[in-house]
Design brief:
304 residues; alpha+beta; Arc Repressor Mutant, subunit A; Multidrug-efflux Transporter 1 Regulator Bmrr, Chain A; 26% strand
Length: 304
């Protein structure tokens, strides 16, 4: 068994036993490693200490439980192994900078610790071959855009730490409010394509430590509107990572994080491909009904 498979086995165990006391000694025994080497290997592969990871996974599950309004907050806490409402509230606030009560009243989108699927780091698929992993279907292909697509929307400057922390760090998702603002103003955009795409584009910013994020809707032709920005998806060849999950929340949280990790950290480097400094999230729409999306990147060179 590979080292990553041993750690994955304990990740699966942790998720199945979040309501119980989880001891490092027990996890180490499952991998036939000493507690010292188990923790060292875990931190190397997961980028978190064992106990920090367990805490953050409990908090991720807590956000799901709090959305069940017929369930008392104390019961959510007890179900996840917390001894009291006070202990649960303290850790929730430390993690998300808001109380469980505030989140229940106003369930904003939160970045949460995603359960890693370590096999994605060690599996290389061919083009047009689906990869099924932990409830996510990923497929990578090449697509040729014969004509440019035009988009009108809004843009915002966002700290790079947001992208670096997706799926790992916890807190309020700054782009959720931005997308909601865009959808409120979308009705003011003339010339929208009927059943056209929506895109989210991340690209470099001249200010160090930030990137620019554009959210927009497809229009029939280029237009200039006051207080709106434009983006052109130029014609040409793209590498497209398509992925699908069971629901929208999984799509934009766990699915997007894992697809990005696989595309940028595994697939592109192993194929020795370089890309232009932007990536496009392409949706049929950005509403709660969709369960699939695409990441488009434009290759610029093939390293020999």
């Amino acid at each position: 068994m590979h080292a990553w498979e041993q750690i994955q086995m304990t990740l699966d165990y942790i998720d199945e036993h979040l309501s119980e006391t989880i001891e490092i000694k027990k996890l180490a025994e499952m991998t036939a490693l000493s507690p010292f080497y188990y923790q060292r290997l875990f931190s190397r592969l997961v980028k978190k200490s064992v106990m920090e990871y367990i805490k953050l996974r409990r908090m991720a599950k807590a956000t799901e439980g709090l959305l069940q309004r017929n369930k008392r907050i104390l019961d959510v806490a007890l179900d996840l192994g917390f001894s009291s409402h006070e202990q649960f509230t303290r850790i929730f606030k430390q993690t998300f900078d808001m109380t469980p009560e505030s989140y229940r009243k106003n369930p904003v989108a939160l970045n949460r610790m995603t359960k890693p699927q370590l096999s994605l780091n060690y599996t290389l698929i061919d083009e047009n071959v689906p990869l099924i992993s932990d409830g996510i279907v990923i497929e990578i292909s090449r697509k040729k855009l014969l004509e440019p697509e035009y988009y009108v929307g809004l843009e915002t400057k966002t700290p790079i730490q947001f992208i670096e922390g997706l799926g790992i760090k916890s807190g309020i998702d700054p782009l959720d409010k931005f997308w909601r603002n865009f959808h409120e103003r979308k009705v003011n955009i003339p010339g929208l394509v009927n059943k056209g795409y929506e895109i989210g584009v991340a690209y470099s910013c001249i200010e160090e430590g930030f990137f620019v994020y554009f959210a927009g809707a497809q229009v029939k032709s280029p237009i200039i509107l006051k207080d709106f920005s434009n983006w052109e998806l130029q014609k040409g060849e793209y590498i497209v990572c398509s992925f699908e999950t069971e629901n929208f929340e999984s799509l934009v949280m766990d699915g997007l994080y894992k697809a990005q990790q696989y595309l940028f950290n595994v697939w592109l480097p192993n194929h020795k491909l370089f890309i232009e400094p932007f990536s496009v999230e392409r949706y049929e729409s950005h509403d709660k009904e969709i369960t699939s999306m695409e990441i488009w990147v434009k290759p610029v060179a093939l390293k020999s």
